[in-house]
Amino acid sequence: MKFVFLMLMLMMPRVWADVIVLQNGDRLTGVVDSISGGKVLFKSAFAGPVSVNLAAIARLTTEGIFDVNASGEKLRGQFLFEDDQQLIGSAGSARPIAVDRVRTASQNLLVLEKFVSSWDSRIDLAANFSNGNTNTQQFSTVMETILKQENYEHGLTLRVAKEKAEKETSKDELDLAYDGKVFISSSLYASANANYFEDGLREVDSRITLGVGVGNRFWDNSFGMLYSSLGVSYVREDSLGNVANDPAIRWSLDYKRYLLAKQLELFHNQSFLHIASGNQGEVFKSSSGIRYALNTRVSLLARLDFQHETKPAAGSGKSDVAYNLGVGAKF
User: Fold this and answer.
1) 258-308: per-residue pLDDT in tens?
2) Residue 48: how many other CB atoms lie within 10 Å
3) Tens digit of pLDDT for each residue in 158-177?
4) CA 195 to CA 173: how far, in whole Å?
5) Which residues of 279-298 are buried (b: 16+ CB within 10 A; e: fewer)?
6) Taking 60 as the threshold, does the pLDDT of residue 16 lie above it?
7) Are 191 and 229 in contact (CB under 8 A)?
8) What is the average pLDDT across 185-202?
9) 3-state secondary structure of 101
10) Chain center to CA of 73
11) Per-residue pLDDT at 163
């Protein structure tokens, strides 16, 4: 029983008890996420994410370790308060710092302790309508879920896009992708991916891609992340009953950047597939956009989806561009 209890305790997400004491004596407990633009982004159980002005803070203590830029000086460590002094560093090895000198502070998620797990899911709904020379209705749904657990990460994304022009279907796509990572070190990982894509209007009844590779996590902190991987794949494509099986090379990139105390998110995801067969060529897909958080759950969305095939089916265009405005929900 004790062993089971210990394992459960280790697998529970770490709860940090960071403390902010304001100039007026008020005390806030929760988690310090980051510092930028003269504000501390602070998360508490009773109020969710809030921004606190640095000028209003008398002292600050954290259990997390931060990369700090203080008036151009690079520092690293916990925020401590000892002997009536604000410090940065670790117990027994810290130096004084004025809180109002801190320009930015972020946690490096590459070096957080093991056994921290998280599961985030999101759904984005978008629709565009235009009336003029043609009447067009465009709908898209993107659902994604990411599970991070110890040295593993699993991501699943589903995209469905439909478009009608003058009551005639002009787009009907389904794109289901899985991406798995096993971290060999704090930045290097082995990857496995699978993708199912169909688009009847482009005469792609199904395209199945299975691949493995290696990747690098260039950074992952409170302000964003950048991942990239390169690997080999197997591609099976069924186009109007003609089935082709070919090897391929796949390169992917995932980028996020948070601004305005995480109210604004910039993102860009892309993949490039070079298929060995001379009949299929290359497939490039990307999704770029911005999200503005109305609260911790709901956000507004503007997204540009782009797909380019160097050798599409006869009668189909090489490039497909979709502009999406909509709303997203995180749960």
Assistant:
1) 998 889 999 999 999 999 876 778 999 999 999 999 988 899 999 999 999
2) 12
3) 999 888 776 777 778 999 99
4) 13
5) ebeebbbebebbbebeeeee
6) no
7) yes
8) 91
9) helix
10) 29
11) 81
Element (H, E) at 2: helix 2-11
Domains parsed from the chain with CATH numbers: 11-107 (no CATH), 117-330 (2.40.160.40)
Residues 272/248, Cβ–Cβ less than 8 Å: no
115: its two tokens: 């056994």
Look at residues 274, 254, 143, 256 and name the one whose alpha carbon lies nearest to residue 189.
Answer: 254
Contacts of 180 (CB under 8 A, 6+ apart): 152, 153, 154, 155, 191, 192, 193
Residue type, position 160, single letter: V
- Rounded to whole angstroms, the Cα distance separating 309 from 130 reads 26
CA within 13 Å, CB half, 144: 14
Cβ distance 36 to 261 under 8 Å? yes
> What pLDDT score does 116 carry?
54
User: In this structure, which amino acid lies at residue 245?
Assistant: N
| Beta bridge partner(s), residue 22 | 57
State the residue for tokens 């560093």: 89
Its pTM stands at 0.82
Report the alpha-carbon distance of residue 11 to residue 110 in Å, rounded.
18
CA 117, 223, 225 angle in degrees (round to 5)?
65
Residue 108 is predicted with a pLDDT of 79
| pLDDT 10s digits, 73-128 | 899 999 999 989 999 998 778 999 998 889 999 987 776 544 456 788 999 998 77
pLDDT tens digits along 25-80: 999 999 999 999 889 999 887 777 888 999 999 999 998 899 999 988 899 999 99
How many whole angstroms separate alpha carbon 204 and alpha carbon 313? 8
Whole-number Å distance between alpha carbons of 194 and 201: 23
Strand partners, 112: none
